Amino acid sequence: MHVIEHLPLETERLMLRCYTLADAPSIYRINSIEEVTRYLPFGPMMSEEDAISQLERFFLPAYAQADAGQTGRGSLPLDLKFAACLKDTKELVGMVFIETSDGSCKLGYTVDSRWWGRGIATEMCQAVVDLARSLGITRLTATVDVRNAASERVLVHIGMKPRRPAKGIWQGGEKNGYRLWELELKP
């Protein structure tokens, strides 16, 4: 399964593509805002170097591994990590991924706060769900801090169902409640 063959993914307003190092300033801009990272397991990025490190540690190696024919557990593709850009301006406004390296398929995303409330998160997540279905992935999960009602609404819009509450330790060692969401994909 080579995800690159399906790229760029296009929606009405967005183009989802692979990351490049040139995306570091945009990734930093989005993830340096405390409000954006409030419900994530990591706090705000402190510098553009943090964004470069994230690209070099997580995103770019996944593309290289996929190009070399490597897959995750269960033969899952490793390169389901996308920069979501506006089609008309090419501005990076969000990040969306399915983490597959451990054999599960966990959906995650972040959206530039300037674009909150405009359906960007739903649009980019739906595109990735559709791609996952076309690749034969049968189940997606997501974990959301129970205080994050906006993200829970996005998951409802893309068809996910809440499954069970759980507890976890997130940024700063704070114990938060979170909920596991699930979506069974049919071909």
Question: What report would you give on this structure?
Answer:
- It is a single chain.
- This protein is of the alpha+beta class.
- It has one domain (3-184): 3-Layer(aba) Sandwich (Aminopeptidase), CATH 3.40.630.30.
- Helices cover 30% and strands 28% of the residues.
- The protein is built from 5 helices and 8 strands; from the N terminus they run ββαααβββαβαββ.
- It has helices at residues 24-31, 34-37, 48-67, 120-134, 149-157; strands at 9-10, 14-17, 81-86, 92-99, 106-111, 139-145, 161-169, 175-184.
- Helix 1 packs across helix 3.
- 33% of the residues are buried.
- The mean pLDDT is 90.
Concise synopsis of the structure shown:
The chain is of the alpha+beta class.
What secondary-structure arrangement, pairings included, does this model have?
Elements (H helix, E strand, L loop, with lengths): L8 E2 L3 E4 L6 H8 L2 H4 L10 H20 L13 E6 L5 E8 L6 E6 L8 H15 L4 E7 L3 H9 L3 E9 L5 E10 L3
Antiparallel strand pairs: 1-2, 2-3, 3-4, 4-5, 6-8, 7-8
Helix pairs in contact: 1-3
Radius of gyration: 16 Å
Fraction of residues in H or I helices: 25-40%
Label the structural class: alpha+beta
- State the domain count: 1
CATH fold title:
Aminopeptidase
- Mean of residue pLDDT? 90
**Major β-sheet, in short?**
5 strands, antiparallel
